[in-house]
Model the fold of this input.
Amino acid sequence: MFSELRGRLLTADIALERYADARAVVAIVLRNRAAPEVLVMERARRDTDPWSGHWSFPGGRRNPEEPLLAAVRRETEEEVGLSLVEQELLGCLEARPPANRLEMLVLPFVFAWDRADAPTPGPEVASVQWIPLQELPRTRATMTIKIRERERPMPAFVHHPWAIWGFTYRLLEDLLTLAA
Done:
């Protein structure tokens, strides 16, 4: 599965050149067990975090002058305790901004995880989970999200204990399209 996906992703060289001005990164970490799985994390609840409590991929803003690849590796290790330094970088999805931060271009890197190490939540993370990719289409739903005191229907992947919507949902839909 990973070799086919690699051929459908942007190569890292092209993505790094095309999106050199990206301000943030996320790591889409895949492993192949009985079926391909993707790593997601539940962000810890904090008043200063606009994505507090949401399910997402490891990632965040890059430091000034920090290379994008170094930023995604640093963020992943800080948030879920996994070192991606020696893991295969399959490629990148197209960069995009989250809907609530249109000025922030985020570059999604896709890695293959082939080690037995288990992810460990860092201080900004409440929990982590591997989700089989084949389960996601069966969990598509619409959920009501309160944004700026207004309730809005949002497409989501919903399966206890996680509900994935917004930016992470859109990236997973992109990934599923490429992996099909």
Notes: The radius of gyration is 15 Å.
